[in-house]
């Protein structure tokens, strides 16, 4: 499998120094007594925000003092070409950073915080698809006094690194048992087939008929991940999807192990009682758990699909949360696992940056010289995967991107494809129970008797 070229631009190691002489009047908040923040922009990408630590002018910045990424942008080959094309008629693409004193956010419709200054850093992206490049590492003057030698100074590290990915595209909705193609440029090559099915009510130990046998020991752990919540009417249960390679062998599966049930007195799946999927991989003649996906319907203005994905390492009971966020039920969005972003933004114009996913609380949300490797509990670091999810009622053919560094075999890629199918199907599983599902998602056995 040949990957598609992607480039990761990372902004990190932020710090701010302001000379004592430039302290503003009492009516203006000084960063020594209040937090600072910045807005980071790259054309055609959603703006990201980050806190900027203040350092007293007399202090020195230790090399290991700041190791936190503030923003991450991911560029495909098409993104790079688009930026390069625009630079013919203007200057090179620039990263723009606006620094503010005071707290971020809005009060009564007015932006809080006072603009201290702006920084514009040109980016030459030529060749970054194959080699790393550091655009800036150190201090830079900001503000109106920049040419007078008495301005505030911003410390930052801006670099670009190759981040190739495998790209997979479903040619139909997961419940329609589609083929899955690998995409590279204009080339589409079939790599997997998916089989959607219903598990019978009495079979709580989902397994593929393609696997010859399943030891009795596997039944205990499969049932332990789900709960039997048999209620007539407001529940959706028994869905499963198996991913096969081109030889017909099963290489991954997603099984709904906890039914999606409407909470008492409502027609929605609540966060306190989510449905769940088990993502499975074959091993030793049986299925073994790789991860667990929980999903629910958020209330209030966010009204969307809430989700949490946990990694299950080596059958350990201590699962590791890799992603937790919300996808709009109307507009859709992206399911993302990214352990290297600042995790506070969603994209504009339908594009959602991978930083919109939430990293696990126990991870440093970073890597390389930004702190990767500090989290010994998982092999996953940096960008891991993303999968597009359409809103309710829209035709959904998920596009799945997986970092090359996390794919060592066909089963690795298939597991992410199965996970993408599960999150897409969860959008339907979490639809309000007052709404009807399409016929492919309705088990004929539910209408018997």
UniProtKB/TrEMBL annotation:
Residues 208-221 have a biased composition (Low complexity). It comes from the Eukaryota. Residues 201-221 are annotated as: Disordered. It holds the Pfam family DUF1005. This is Formin-like protein 18. The lineage of its organism: Eukaryota, Viridiplantae, Streptophyta, Embryophyta, Tracheophyta.
